[in-house]
Amino acid sequence: MEWEYGIVPGVEHYGCMIDLLGLGGRLREAFRLVHSMPMEPNAAVWRTLLGACRMHNDLELAEEGA
Is the pTM of this model over 0.70? Predict the structure, then answer.
């Protein structure tokens, strides 16, 4: 995004990626993305990740995220 279009990803962009990864069942990858974000994750990002954990019954990751 940055190199081709000059758009710096914001927290909304990261939230969308976390949502897509979570819906696809790639919860560990989504969790790593939350921790590698260059900004502080907001409540919506955490809610998205926890919702994906609930959908996929991953209590262990949900506890780690909470």
Answer: yes
pLDDT per residue over 24-62, tens digit each? 999 999 999 999 999 999 999 999 999 999 999 888 888
Query: Three-state DSSP class for 8?
Result: coil
Alpha-carbon distance 65 to 10, whole Å? 21
The answer to whether 61 and 35 have CB atoms below 8 angstroms apart is no
Domains in the chain, number: 1
Instruction: Please classify residue 11 by burial: count the beta carbons closer than 10 Å to its beta carbon, then call 0-12 exposed, 13-18 middle and 19+ buried.
Output: middle
What is the distance between the alpha carbons of residues 7 and 58, in angstroms, rounded to a whole number? 34
